[in-house]
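Hey there, shall we discuss this one?
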Amino acid sequence: MQVFSQRFWSQVVAAGVCALLVTVGSSDDLAAQTGPSPDPANDITFAKDVAPILQQNCQVCHQPGAIGPMSLMEYQDVRRYARRISRMVESRDMPPYQYDTDVGIQDLKEDWRMTDDEISTIMAWVAAGSPEGDPADMPAPVEWPDPAEFRLADRFGEPDVVVASAPYDVPEVGQDRWWRPTTPTGVTSDRCIRAVETKPSVTGRAVAHHANSSFTVNGERAGRLSEYALGKVGEIVPEGACRRIPAGADVTWDIHYWPNGVEVNDDQVEVGIWLHDEDYEGKYDQTLTLYFLNGGRGYDIAPHGTLMTQGFHSFDTPTRIDSWQPHGHTRLVAASIQILRKDGTLEMVSMVSNWSALWHHSHIYDEDQAPLLEAGDQIVLTHWYDNTADNRYNPDPDQWVGIGDRTADEMAHAWMAITHLDEEGYEQIKAERSRPVSEQPDRDR
């Protein structure tokens, strides 16, 4: 098993996290051009069947000027990488959304995963020799948004509030750096947030490891706003809940920059906030919180060793888990969230068996599937770490790895958005879910 060097890791991030499509695997890019002849009995073609799948799942990254290292817009370009594409979609390394398909809740918002039928179509097309088909069957080109724009704008329109961090110069080479400026929001009354997205600059994506943001009022902490890490799109607050932005609030940033061979001057991270109407009052508060695992600030991983750690969290009132986002670095390989009920039963909520530090996703549950906890139920968070040469992302299996903030260190926590209910709200949600689908509230998915 190949061990990736720090130089390799830097090149992956600098080129864009989609670069795994090129780097992982053997060099057989051109093999598809001399592969088996198309089977006339197989009517799967690029123009009719594969191009629409690429438009839906791949071209947002793999187009000229975007973060993907090659374009997948034209037939000849796709055919060159056909076998590699087949491997990457079969393994579900691409599209890059790490979330197990056979365990736990499967109804998610902003879910990038391909369907089994889409994966089978691509694999069958490649096995048949990657036929082009009739160019007249090609779908119309997609008009893609500017990569510098907010990605949730397609769904919610332009943000109501945009807050930018103060500029920062990131050198080409150096140690991890943290930038913690404070900038005003300009919001003059208490408002409820509908959605939020943190967006590094186009050039800054290569060096912005994460960017946390919190509200402060007169210098005092007033709640979390958002969290960004590589690959994350944003967060959506469910209808009826309120993640609150206080009047007169500032945004205090905690931005982790990682110099990796790309010099970026005057870099700024932006957070876009979509607000509900002024008369909207969510019945229940939603909070975004960093939940540690028990060993989150006190363990070491031995060279060529592995480790598992857990964290347990309970609440004094009923709650709903709206989203789950595990966090770690290059030795984290898998994560799960479970619920330990008061009666002793253990329920699996979500599992990521192929976690990658290249992509961090906030897994947002559909409202009718988001887990409900009674007071006294416990959330069980589990992380697995691999510091051996079998971990393809491990930069150096000979090193001891401790908990810390640097990219070379490890972390053990999960970001979760929780709606804090009362007994009446808990019973109301349970009653709504028990109704026939035709009688349930119309959800905005």
